[in-house]
Structure prediction request, 347 residues.
Amino acid sequence: LGISFYSFHAISYIADIYKGRVRANRDPLQFILYMTMFPQLVAGPIVRYSTVARQLGARRTTWGRFSAGARIFAIGLAWKVLIADEVAPLVMSIFDGTTSPTLLEAWLGVYAYAIQIYFDFGGYSAMAVGLGVMVGFTLPRNFRIPYAALSLTDFWRRWHMSLSSWLRDYVYIPLGGNRLGEARTYANLWSVFLLCGLWHGASWNFVIWGAHHGAFLVIERAGLKRWLDRAPRAVAHLYTVVVVLLGWVWFRAETFDGALDLFAGLFGLNGIGGLSFPLAFGLYPLSVAALVAGGLIGFWKWPRLRLSARWRPVVAAGDYVMVAAVLLLSIIWIGGGPAAPFLYYRF
Prediction:
């Protein structure tokens, strides 16, 4: 459980000592605390020793930090329980169903899975960061509205940021990065994402998922990124979302044939018709609500309201009331049945 995260913590610690970036910690208790820090131990974010070295022996908690951490934790819990878990039955019915998905069902399924994995993993990361703040640690942010990205390059600056930066600093740059010519740069980039796929699991679907992302990143670096930077934002956004959704098919598929069947549905080869049973009979109303909420939160960067000093206390009070209500609702939801395990626990 969490061996991939644990291993990356240890590797970065040893590599940074070897490179002279940090000094070895001679306090065994502090080292054990770093390696076994409970909020993020099993599913990230990946925390480098240099990020928390000073905090291990000199952290402090205040009521303000505790309440801020509790707010982050409550939002993460709501993402997991009220959105990701509610979308899960819809995802299972399409990806694991006994009938071939139609065009509408296939696109609904991959969109639903995009919502599920983001709010499941993003929710866990937020809960980990929130717990860390509550006990005096400042952990790195792991997501920054990734589905609002305007290129796949931009997506990987927003998705699982602790992993992408780790792979950049400990694999891509040591391989030569972009310093050895274009051909070597493309090979390094693609190799890193093959490794990224293998990090998720020694399975064909993760390797293909990594190869998929690596190939599009190479294409973007070869010239597509410059075109995307000049293209209308809606076009760049649509391109990014489609590429990411197609990649999620490989990531979620249980079998190779199942992935091909879903791709056939995406391209209309299984028919364009409506939703089949049980989808057509509206048996997943909460899933639909979660899909709408997830889309509004996850795919768009909403502008911040500029408030006068007069209204700020009112908005702050309303924010705390809303977070408390969401936390209470999440607890009630959990009480209704066992919560589904986090998706990234398997890695």
Observations:
- The chain has 13 helices and no strands.
- Residues 1-58 form one domain.
- The chain has a mean pLDDT of 84.
